[in-house]
Design a protein that fits this description.
Strand order of the largest sheet: 2-4-5
Structural class: alpha+beta
Strand content: 5-15%
Shape: globular
CATH class of one domain: Alpha Beta
Number of strands: 5
CATH superfamily of one domain: Uncharacterised protein PF11572, DUF3234
Distance between the termini: 54 Å
Largest sheet: 3 strands, mixed
Order of helices and strands: HHEEHEHEEH
Oligomer: single chain
Length: 163
């Protein structure tokens, strides 16, 4: 059968005209068909933003690796009644609190707080000039990015995008 035979020694069987062929089911596949099979060697998933924060603050991750993970990660931001970031002005430079998870945001802002979610790349794109941000303000591995660090992140993103 030119490589199509599923069972060695099986013969092609013909049904009389008008007869329905018996339903076939693939072995190991409930319901039969060509369902998604898990890969034999799954691709490793990138670290979460929280894991990247931990690794970067402990020195086990480079700034470039952190920025690549940050750019594609979800960032949770507290929200006021008006659109935009909520900034803290009681610091040396104004900073915007941001969080690696909804749990971290709730720890800081309370259970019923309003928020929005954007990617790290959008943060870099939308952050007002002269502002920094704080990741996980109440967390174990709080990270502060001052305005100068944000400028460096913008430069890195531009070099990566445009060469």
């Amino acid at each position: 059968m030119y490589g199509y035979d599923q069972n060695p020694g099986a013969q092609q069987q013909y049904a009389p005209p008008g007869a329905q062929p018996p339903p076939q089911q693939m072995q190991g596949m409930p319901g039969g068909g060509y369902g998604q099979q898990p890969p034999l060697y799954p691709e490793p998933s990138p670290p979460s933003l929280a894991d990247a924060v931990r690794a970067f603050t402990t020195g086990s991750m480079s700034a470039e690796d952190f920025q690549q993970i940050f750019a594609t990660s979800k960032v949770y931001c507290p929200r006021g009644d008006n659109p935009g970031f909520l900034a803290l002005h009681n610091t040396q430079q104004p900073v915007i609190p941001m969080f690696t998870s909804l749990k971290e945001l709730r720890r800081y802002a309370g259970k019923d707080s309003k928020y929005f979610v954007i990617t790290g790349a959008e943060v870099i794109d939308l952050l007002p000039t002269g502002y920094g941000f704080v990741l996980d303000m109440e967390g174990e591995h709080r990270m502060v990015f001052d305005a100068k660090a944000v400028e460096q992140m913008v430069d890195f993103a531009m070099r990566r995008m445009y060469g």
